[in-house]
């Protein structure tokens, strides 16, 4: 009889390793790991190191705890990166700078995100025109909604939806493939649930 194989979950004691692939997935898991491990460490990553104003010779116990938390946050971040990714951020002094460098490298600046959103909107609108539906995106009938009783829910402006969702969510849904020609599922752009449509 063949042995049954099964997959096990990752350890809650070890940060998820980032090897340069699937940044959005790693970033979300890393946030959850840090928050679950010690929320103060997550605050250090987001907001910067805990401030110690005394000279080293005059550190109090509270100062030492702050320094220890800062070092712990940086250590966890370093343990979560393979050598190639570590080399990209190793020159930064604080863990917040390391985190922000990874965000800019893999998600881009706000301007880059805005450009990606504009590209996704243009692709979606082009897709709607190519599908032969009159009226472009505003007049499009969502897939699966044709002939439903009680009328068809209107399609919300794709630009509004893209701008109100965080880019990492869209990057996750689209596999960060705005430049590879993949399209969003039009069902995700329908306003309201099935129960609302039937009322």
TrEMBL record:
It comes from Colocasia esculenta. Pfam families: Retrotran_gag_2. It comes from the Eukaryota. This is DUF4219 domain-containing protein.
């Amino acid at each position: 009889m063949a042995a049954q194989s099964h997959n096990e979950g990752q350890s809650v004691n070890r940060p998820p390793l980032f090897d340069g692939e699937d940044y959005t997935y790693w970033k979300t898991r890393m946030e959850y790991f840090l928050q679950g491990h010690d929320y103060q460490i997550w605050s250090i990553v987001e907001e910067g190191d805990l401030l110690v104003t005394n000279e080293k010779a005059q550190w109090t116990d509270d100062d030492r705890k702050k320094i220890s938390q800062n070092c712990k946050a940086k250590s966890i971040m370093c343990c979560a990166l393979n050598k190639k990714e570590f080399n990209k951020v190793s020159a930064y002094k604080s863990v917040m700078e390391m985190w922000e460098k990874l965000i800019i490298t893999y998600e881009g600046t706000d301007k880059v995100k805005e450009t990606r959103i504009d590209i996704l909107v243009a692709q979606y609108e082009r897709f709607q025109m190519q599908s032969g539906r009159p009226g472009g995106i505003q007049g499009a009938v969502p897939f699966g909604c044709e002939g439903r009783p009680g009328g068809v829910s209107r399609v919300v402006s794709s630009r509004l939806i893209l701008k109100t969702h965080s880019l990492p969510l869209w990057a996750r849904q689209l596999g960060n493939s705005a430049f590879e020609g993949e399209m969003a599922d039009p069902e995700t752009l329908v306003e309201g649930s099935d129960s609302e449509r039937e009322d």
